[in-house]
């Protein structure tokens, strides 16, 4: 009986070790997609709350639009913004992120945009970058844009990377306006 207990104990340990070794391989997209809506929304709203800006609401229509574009980017295997349509009565703001597949959480992806805050200076858009390059703050200003009230995001995958696309309404980064 004692050897049975030892044997089954070793089996449990071996099973736990095998599970621990294989777990990173099985997490991938499933874990990244888990509670995506609430995780991405919370990441945006934490920063907005710190600045006293109204919190964003999730918009499923924006998420559907983001999903379409994230899938497209995965198929073409590169990152590029959706074409701008000047006749669109309800333009959407857009933030894009890409990184090595399976290495970043949804929170990390949004945090990448928020880290641009270090280059931000108050004022009128596009004079908001301490470096003089709007590319250094444009994601952050869209996350924080005072008139933006809704967001919808989706994940896609390229050959070797994860993609996050977030769409915003109303659009941010409007020339001549203050972000917040």
Describe the structure.
The chain has a four-stranded mixed β-sheet with strand order 1-3-4-2, sandwiched between helices. Helix 2 packs parallel to helix 4. It has helices spanning 2-33, 36-50, 60-76, 106-114, 138-144; strands at 57-58, 93-100, 150-157, 161-169. It has five helices and four strands; from the N terminus they run ααβαβααββ. It is globular and about 40 Å long. The longest helix has 32 residues, at 2-33. The model is unreliable at 1-30 (pLDDT under 50). By secondary structure, it is of the alpha+beta class.
- What's the helix count? 5
What is the mean predicted local confidence, pLDDT?
86
* Major sheet attributes: 4 strands, mixed
| Rg computed from alpha carbons, rounded to a whole number of angstroms | 21 Å
Strand order of the largest sheet: 1-3-4-2
Q: Give the H and E element order.
A: HHEHEHHEE
How many β-strand stretches? 4
The fraction of residues assigned to DSSP E strands is 15-25%
| Category from helices, strands and their pairing | alpha+beta
What distance lies between the first and last C-alpha atoms, to the nearest angstrom? Answer: 71 Å
Which term fits the overall shape?
globular
Helix content: 40-55%
Low-confidence stretches: 1-30
């Amino acid at each position: 009986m004692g050897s049975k207990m030892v044997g089954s104990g070793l089996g449990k340990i071996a099973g736990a070790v095998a599970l621990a070794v294989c777990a990173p391989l099985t997490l991938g997209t499933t874990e990244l997609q888990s509670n995506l809506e609430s995780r991405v929304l919370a990441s945006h709203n934490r920063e907005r709350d710190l600045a006293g800006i109204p919190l964003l609401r999730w918009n499923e229509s924006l998420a559907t639009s983001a999903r379409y574009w994230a899938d497209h980017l995965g198929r073409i295997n590169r990152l590029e913004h959706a074409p701008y349509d000047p006749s669109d009565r309800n333009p959407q703001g857009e933030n894009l992120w890409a990184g090595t597949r399976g290495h970043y959480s949804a929170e990390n992806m949004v945090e990448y945009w928020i880290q641009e805050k270090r280059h931000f200076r108050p004022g009128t858009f596009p004079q908001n970058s301490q470096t003089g390059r709007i590319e250094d703050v444009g994601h952050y200003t869209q996350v924080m844009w005072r008139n933006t009230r809704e967001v919808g995001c989706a994940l896609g995958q390229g050959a070797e990377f994860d993609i996050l696309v977030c769409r915003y309404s109303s659009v941010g980064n409007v020339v001549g306006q203050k972000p917040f």
